[in-house]
Design a protein that fits this description.
This protein is an alpha/beta fold. The protein has 2 domains: 176 residues, Rossmann fold (3-Layer(aba) Sandwich), CATH 3.40.50.2000; 174 residues, 3-Layer(aba) Sandwich (Rossmann fold), CATH 3.40.50.2000. The chain is 42% helix and 13% strand. The chain has 16 helices and 12 strands. Strands 3-2-1-4-5-6 form a 6-stranded parallel sheet. The longest helix is centred in the first third of the chain and has 33 residues. The radius of gyration is 23 Å and the shape is globular.
């Protein structure tokens, strides 16, 4: 009878294995350092690989849009940076940088194993779950900084997603309040929470300003762009949503969340088989979502952060589906107040429910014609997208100033920070 280990147990065993191997490696390294110290008559030597001043890690190529403006700013300043990706086909690997070194570090657990032994002063990442699952803080990384890959609530990560970062780079004051409340409730030390803006949205806005006009004779286009999980559109509405959109006579683009192709593969396979591509319908999986957002006139989504990319950058209306969002898996469930996302959506768009699904064409027309939504979009920008146009500069300014501070801090104090 074959021996079976379920994925959860396998992940736990891998985490334990990495911890044991890490402890052994550090013990051997310390012993080697002491031996060299004695053999050289008390003269210290630098050990192992050269420490990286600045590093970035991404678990997926789909976040290249988050990091490209930051990498470009490091390159512009002539400052060395190592960009580490878990995607072998990450677009960064093809970019001809001089000062930014882009490296594929392996997929999945192989990438985390390398990160757990990393030697760097500062590591920036958009990946949640540091020191929660298999990604552990390295003793040889002095400072971990997190940057969100969406411009909405910082509490929509799976529970404890950002707890063990030293800093979280934010774009709105309400996000600062959310983090501080979680820290107080969990007894966590206060993180650094600089308001730097959002570099990827700045880059998207600049790109839009220089884009050519769209054809005037193109059909009215609706983009269905859900999140993933039990509370998302495709899980709650399924084919009913696609049927209703096709009946509107609009051109329909369905762009599932990339995680759906992993976590909801069976559901997507069924939907894509039942609704094959045609003149009226297309399925979109572009790594870069700029063009699909630009050529869509209106978006239908749920709680996905892309709804704010679309409405605040492209200044277009949205329809948000009532999916009875379940906060229980997320940090948001710890806070009593309503999420910023759900207080803002009624101001910038119309709600879609099971009851008015058959009237979706009317909702589309109202959203396209109603001027109050445009005014509300500007208010939302002020709340969640501060320092517009300055995100990459402020991010790199912050990281470089932090590096300077770290060089002035005794080595032992860095180890204390990581405890």
């Amino acid at each position: 009878m074959p021996f079976y280990i379920d994925p959860g147990t396998g992940s736990m065993l891998f985490t334990i294995l990495i911890g044991v191997l890490g402890a052994a490696i550090y013990a051997l390294r310390d012993s080697a350092m002491k031996l060299r110290f004695y053999l050289t008559g008390g003269k210290a030597e630098k050990d192992g690989a050269e420490r990286i001043p600045y590093a970035i890690f991404t678990d997926s190529k789909r976040y290249w849009n988050v990091f490209e403006p930051i990498c470009d700013e490091f390159e512009k300043r002539g400052q060395a940076l190592v960009y580490m990706t878990a995607s072998p086909d990450d677009p960064a690997l093809e970019k001809p940088y001089t000062h930014v070194s882009c490296q594929f570090v392996g997929e999945g657990n192989k990438a985390f194993a390398k990160l757990n032994m990393l030697r760097a002063d500062i590591l920036l990442s958009s990946t949640p779950g540091l020191d929660v699952y298999q990604w552990k803080r390295s003793r040889d990384v002095k400072f971990y900084a997190h940057i969100p890959h969406a411009i909405s609530d910082i509490t929509v990560y799976r529970m404890f997603g950002i707890d063990y970062y030293d800093a979280v780079l934010l774009s709105g004051e309400y996000q600062v309040e959310q983090v501080r409340k979680l820290e107080a409730m969990r007894g966590l030390p206060a993180k650094e929470l600089p308001l730097v803006g959002q570099p990827y949205m700045d880059a998207m806005r600049a790109r839009l300003a220089s884009a050519p006009p769209l054809p005037e004779d193109r059909p009215l286009t609706v983009l269905l762009a859900p999140s993933w999980g039990e509370s998302a559109i495709l899980k709650r509405y399924g084919g009913k949503m696609i049927d209703a959109l096709l009946e509107t006579g609009c051109h329909v683009i369905v762009r599932p969340h990339p995680q759906s192709f992993t976590s909801e593969k069976e559901l997507l396979d069924k939907l894509m088989a039942a609704y094959p591509e045609s003149e009226k319908l297309e399925w979109n999986r572009d790594n870069d979502n700029f063009e699909v957002l630009r050529r869509s006139d209106i978006m239908i989504s749920d709680f996905s952060g892309v709804i704010f990319d679309f409405s605040l950058v492209f200044d277009k209306p949205v329809i948000y589906a009532d999916t009875s969002f379940d906060k229980s898996p997320y940090d948001a469930c710890w806070l009593e107040e309503e999420m910023w996302t759900f207080t803002t959506l009624p101001q910038i768009g119309q709600q879609l429910s099971q009851e008015n699904l058959g009237q979706i064409r009317r909702l589309i027309d109202e959203c396209l014609q109603e001027p109050r939504f445009r005014e509300s979009r500007e208010r939302a920008r002020e709340e969640t997208w501060q320092h517009r146009g300055e995100g990459a500069v402020r991010t790199v300014d912050y990281l470089m100033e932090k590096y300077r501070q770290l060089q002035e801090t005794p080595e032992g104090e860095h180890a204390d920070m990581a405890q």
